[in-house]
TrEMBL record:
Keywords: Cell membrane, Glycosyltransferase, Membrane, Transferase. GO terms for molecular function: glycosyltransferase activity. It is an enzyme of class 2 (transferase). It comes from Mesorhizobium opportunistum. This is Glycosyltransferase. It comes from the Bacteria.
Amino acid sequence: MLSVLIETRNDEEALARTLGSLIGGAVEGVVREVVVCDTGSTDQTHHVAEHAGCHYVASGGVAAGIRQAKGDWLLLLEPGAKLVDGWTEAVVAHTARQTMAARFSRSRGSRVPFLARVFSGNRALADGLVISKRQAASLSKHAGSAEALARGLATKKLDAEIWVAPAKRESRK
């Protein structure tokens, strides 16, 4: 069974979209729990997580979420990412026979041309990440965020697709 971790900060709408794509996995019994790891939201992210039945971790980031997770395998997603139907079969098959981490393939509609990816600074979690809890716990000791945990990790490609979350706009001060 899989624990899903989503690191958020003022992502109430994006979180709702991502949670909607996980319903099929919960119905099939693949998703055991969803842990929302908040990093200081001031919007209604907390209420979205609670109403959806998620575990809400208000401090400690992804490391606290990993410690709380009950599954042997974790699925890390960005808020706003949506998994395409059929993803559960690929994840179950992967976790049954692999020990290495894996990422989803980008859905045709969310693929970015190669040069645009090179010059835009690719987000390590854009394609999601399926990782063993043991490996994630080890990596989280030195990573301050889910993004840092996923960066530079050798992974396998899953035979399942993801709609990548739109790039988050930074607020100007």
